[in-house]
Design brief:
single chain, mainly beta, lipopolysaccharide transport protein A fold, 10-stranded antiparallel sheet, 1 helix
């Protein structure tokens, strides 16, 4: 039964996300702007830590959190870990439309794979459509969302999917 529910949820996610396959492809080419109260940079280890109401902007990508950890490889951002209550990750899809907004107490973004992992009070939304659970994995390239309820039996996955409006044709 678990597999059937997971597959049904994945099918709903695929219906919801057909136009959000990739975030803006030129975001990675844009400069990064960061605001924080405290900064620690270690170039030798390829790591930097930003603390205190952090705001990270790169093109259409906007990240907010209490702590943001950036891991660098070959001069580019490889991985971002964001902590907050909640932390947020927002990005515009390549094909236009409404931005995808994600929030959780902990977010991990693997830049090269365009994969987002959300932990604790996780939510992914686009317009009026949303998915929430304790853990969400969002693959921006494949346009897939996998959500898990967490370890507590009280936790559940919640989804809101707005139906596309169709116009009725009247016959005379």
């Amino acid at each position: 039964m678990k597999s059937r529910n997971k597959n049904s949820f994945l099918l709903l996610a695929l219906i919801w996300l057909p136009n959000t396959v990739q975030a803006l492809s030129n975001d990675r080419d844009q400069p990064i702007f960061i605001e924080a109260e405290q900064v620690e940079v270690n170039k030798l280890k390829g790591f930097s830590r930003y603390q205190g109401q952090v705001k990270f902007v790169q093109g259409s990508l906007i990240i907010r959190g209490e702590t943001v950890l950036l891991y660098h490889k070959n001069g580019a951002v490889d991985k971002i870990i964001i902590h907050g209550k909640p932390a947020s990750f927002q990005q515009q899809p390549d094909k236009g439309g409404i931005s995808i907004v994600s929030s959780a107490n902990k977010i991990e973004y693997i830049a090269k794979q365009s994969r987002l992992f959300l932990f604790e009070s996780a939510k992914v939304s686009q317009g009026n459509n949303s998915f929430s659970g304790e853990k969400i994995e969002y693959d921006m390239v494949k346009g897939t969302v996998v959500a898990n309820k967490g370890s507590s039996s009280k936790n559940r996955i919640h989804a809101i999917i707005e139906q596309e409006k169709t116009t009725k044709v009247q016959h005379e």
